[in-house]
Amino acid sequence: MTTADHAEPASVVTPVDHRREVAAETARFVAAVRDADLATAVPSCPGWTLADLVKHTGSVQRWFSALLRARVQEPPRTREVDLRLPEQEDGYADWLAESATVAADAFAATDPDFPMWAWGVDQHARFWARRMLFETLLHRADAELALGLRPVIHRQVAVDGIDEFLVNLPFAAFFAPKVADLRGPDRTIRFRTTDGDDTWLVRLRPDGFGLDTSRPAPDTADATVRGTAADLLLLVYGRLPYEADGLAHEGDEDLLAHWFANSAF
Hints:
Strand order of the largest sheet: 3-2-1-4-5
């Protein structure tokens, strides 16, 4: 990977208040599951129920909050944190709401520009608020999909989420090992929004992959996928196939199949 691959996002993204959006997304998640049967299976997370989804999301929020409070400067050696998880699942919705409050307290106590260890590109506290937002949003969408609902994702937030995913994906191999297989002989994939003018160009090389940040970026790509920002966000996270209604694709089918078989986490 070269420095140029990760120097800047490939799309100009309208600023999103990640800290505020964590609270908003958690509230949407809580509203979706409060009266639901938590034994409901979650097809987009095979083997999980809604209870598992809620527990995972709240646990991640509390763990990230612990990292922020500790202002960690190196990879943590443990993920143990006091979850305060209720014994009965009927308390899970309120517990998830409280997890967002734990996060808000950690945000309030931490300068977003404070230098911190992070597994992705941005080595500052703000990395964890941004990562928490999209962890929460995607699992809120998982819950709604499991309940037969169509997730509503605001365009501005979706654009930021696509960017966050693609910028950090090259560093995710330690928990998503298939990412290491994303390489190729100088092949490119373009993601383009149809409800805006946002575009990302990913370049696969023999030694890895990354966003092509050249200005201007090449107009052509070996494969292209187009859709609304919300659908593209669900696509890159593996919640939609690239053949789904509302998405359009063209170019090298084998390249697209290779990307999507190895990129989701």
